[in-house]
Amino acid sequence: MNSKIFRIILGRLLIAYGVVMLAPAGMAFYYQEVTASSFTIVGLLTIVFGLFLHFAGGTEGRMGVRESLTIVATSWIVTVILGSLPLFISGVVPDYMDALFEITSGLTATGATALTALEGLPRSILFWRSMTHWLGGMGIIVLFIVLLPNIGIGAVHLFKAEVPGPTNEKVMPRIRDTALTLWGIYVGLTILEIILLMIAGMTPFDAVNHAFSNMATGGFSTKDTNIGYFNSFTIELIMVTFMIISGVNFTIYINYWRKGSINVLRNTELKVYLFMILSSILVVAGALVFQGEYEWNLALRHAMFEVTTIITTTGFFITDYDTWPSLSKMLLFFLMFSGGCAASTTGGLKVGRLVLLVKMGWANIKQAIHPRLVINIEVQDKAIEPFILQRVVRFFFLYIFIFVFGSILLAATGLEPFEAMGATIACLGNVGPAFGIAGPLSTYQDISSFGKFILSWLMLLGRLELYTILILFIPEFWRTKRNW
Amino acid sequence: MNLTLLKAITGRFLMVYGVILLVPIIVAYYYQDSSSTILSFALTGLFTLLLGFFLYRRGRIDSSMGVREGFMVVAGIWILASVIGAIPFYASGSVTNFFDALFETTSGFTTTGASVISNLEILPQSILFWRSLTHWLGGLGIIVLFIILLPRFGMGAVHLFHTEVPGPMNQKAFPKIRDEARVLWLIYLGLTSLEVLFLKFAGMSLFDAVNHSFSTLATGGFSTKTASIMEYNSLAIELIIVFFMVLAGVNFNLYIQAWRRGPSNVMLDLEFKVYMLLLLGATSIIVITLVQKSGFDMGTALRQSLFQVVSITTTTGFVTADFNQWPGLAKAILLFLMFIGGSAGSTAGGLKLIRIILLVKVGWNGIKQSLHPRLVTSIVVQEKSVDASVLTGISRYFFLFIAIFVVSSLLLAATGLEPFDAMSASIATLGNVGPGFGVVGPVANYASINAFGKVVLSACMLLGRLELFALLVFLQSEFWRYSQRW
Fold it and tell me: Among residues 281-310 of chain A, which lie with CB inside 8 Å of chain B?
């Protein structure tokens, strides 16, 4: 294991992270909030720690699988721990587990909150929450499009994205280029949304926070009643649009930027994604009308928002969907598993995987009649290699298995089965609010510390697409110092 | 599509079935059931007999049976049996709605055990007997299907690594099949008789003993009492039933092996070991949570937990406690156990343990492979390597199972059931368990579900029982298109 590269990369990351932390620090000083010193101290400490690591490291040597995975896992865990310190030290969040939960939820762009009375909290805290969302979302995009595709982690390799992976000097400039393009798109869209939200009537503070949260498909808000607070169809429409945009495969955006054209119609995943959103809205709205005594206008408005926010695993809400008719709730529950497109900021299984799974299932049925038949799974006229298919089913099984395991653990903390399952998938899929005790208006505050601990791990697992964290459980990973 | 062969086989089946339909008449006569009841069995039986005879004469067993014929026969027989078997329920007045009768019979033959009848004690004895008989026959059919017939087509979970190479079915294969079937039939009959003896000894009436033994060995769950086994409040009876439920959930191939080579083989079987561990583990956890959260005393907790865990894992569905009142952890575990099911090659439903085991191994391999991307490992079970195509098949089956569960849950939620109730009803039928939670809970039944919901659930029962494919295949357009054999 090449510790030098590990140290320098982690070091650089921490320096940047510490600098970013000074932004809420500045805000705290400006508004004379109690968190001023906490942010400053933690921020400076992080910078110092980062500098130390940076100078202890070096760029020579290989960066292989082991290094990549270690860096990823470590940076996430370290940023979570450091990022939650200001909340705890300043006394705003007296329970450290709560602080950890909140920041994990922030960085993984989940949006599950254990904090109540948001409107009374210091602005620096609210800003930091949304900031973690935004950073986390950005990090994920870079991670899965730039750093990890070659290793086959993450769903990006499914459709043979053209972006390269890491390994040597010649490739580095291309990585940097791609990363910068991605950040550019991401920042650009964020700024656009901020402007639109302000035009729609939000204060600059709210607009910035919500745009950060939206682009990362996170879900944190500055209000307890979330987007319901604004009661504005315009704002909801803007957010729905950006949620859908954030749920699209970002490589499409890169390709558009580089080549100037996208054939949206050709991309199967995109088509299925949009179709799922539309049909789900209709079903949910229909149930609201026929079983929930809504009238069509309101039903469509609510359905549009809730369905989009859940499929894109954002987690904003405008109404307490926990009171909705069973079919609507059930559909929302299952949609949490789906997630958006691969290589977006969304969580979940990803539409791309679902598409392949369905095709595989159908092929299996056909093969039952023709046992000797060899069927190739094709997407957009290209055959998908068997090893990719293998990985997809494996991922699906592991995902469900972790879901089951997590639900059982949550149930052990005292939750009813459906609540436990809802909370589990809401965190594993990085959605945010769930049902019952973890419902939109209840927040996660009543869940025990142990429960929050489990849910935090689930958030990380889901965000890093399982393997990065699961690898930590293999003895081999820790065992040798040899190079792989 | 070899229609003459189909006619002959179906005809033969119907003739046998017609005779079977006449058996409850003996019970009806003995217990002096109403004449309308006797008549409904007599007429249905005779009609079926004649229909079968008619078909048989029109057909001919001339050539080998291909995959397509196999599917049609299996699915066709199951559906026919359910439809015809529903007539006595309806005609005798025991069930007022034909959809309900269909649900009940399907539940019987698929050994699910979900009932739409709210008061069993007022039913004629012959009807109660017929319910349990459908279980018993269904269970036998399952064993024959999944140990003998399907493996030859490379399907079902048993062939995964238990039996030998599958092959085409033809005349030469029949004698061997007949032998295997006979042994299985003897084991099944033997165990049933043993349980009848034990139950009688423990205090049950002969009638009840027979009915419950039929139900246990088939891992069905129908009882002659509305309150199920809770009614007897007897530890002895519960333990006997637990014992036989466990036996019924074991791969029957192992029994054949034990007969030939001694019982040590059984202990070595991986699936068997996991099966026992699962039962023990789940029981322990539920005991702990019952004691801690619900304030049960250790004895009661053990007694109820053991029974329910075994009943649900083997997908039997007998009830000795209102587990709907149990703590969330217990309910969650029971729910997930419904998915797992029992061993392959048994009468239990669900995904089957061996599939879960193999999937876990595949998953673990995947984790290791993310560390070593070029690593190629194979899955090995009991020193034999498992073929990659088998693993692929299992993974896809798993996905299809979940997909059907999701669709079914949504449809049931549309009929008005709360999410958890809807999900439990779906898996309780798809996994052929019986009782679910909430509205379809252990002390309730499926009567309150509307007609559409009952149809969906009946479909789930059939799909689960026939391991999805036999029925899903009918959805394929290619299936209907070709008229010649392949």
Answer: 287, 291
